[in-house]
Amino acid sequence: MNVTSIIKIEEGLYNIQSMPCIHCKTDVTIQITAPQLWAYNNGASIQEVLPDESLAVREQFITGTCETCWDNMFGTEEAE
Predict the structure, then answer these.
(1) What is the pLDDT of residue 78?
(2) Which of 45, 59, 60, 62 is paired with 69 by a 20 to 30 Å CA distance?
């Protein structure tokens, strides 16, 4: 997970910021708990650290590509 900023907002709660999208430079900021931050710092997978976040948010933290740019590059998945 690529994090550019970790800011404590209150006891046990933090804001983390993704790196900017490699294409459009937008970033994502989300709140995580102290146990999530601990897991991140100890090598847990993104699915373990951010299980309730969307696939798009997790992807930006992994690859640095936002949902809009991902869709522009690869298209969107259509419902069957």
Answers:
(1) 61
(2) 45
Name the residue among 26, 36, 24, 35 with its Cα closest to residue 4.
26
pLDDT tens, position by position, 60-72? 999 999 999 999 9
Cα–Cα nearest to 31, from 66, 3, 63: 3
- For CA atoms 3, 43, 37, 53, the dihedral sign is positive
Stated as kind and residue range, the H or E segment containing 48 is helix 46-49
Record the tokens describing residue 69, joined without a space: 């740019």
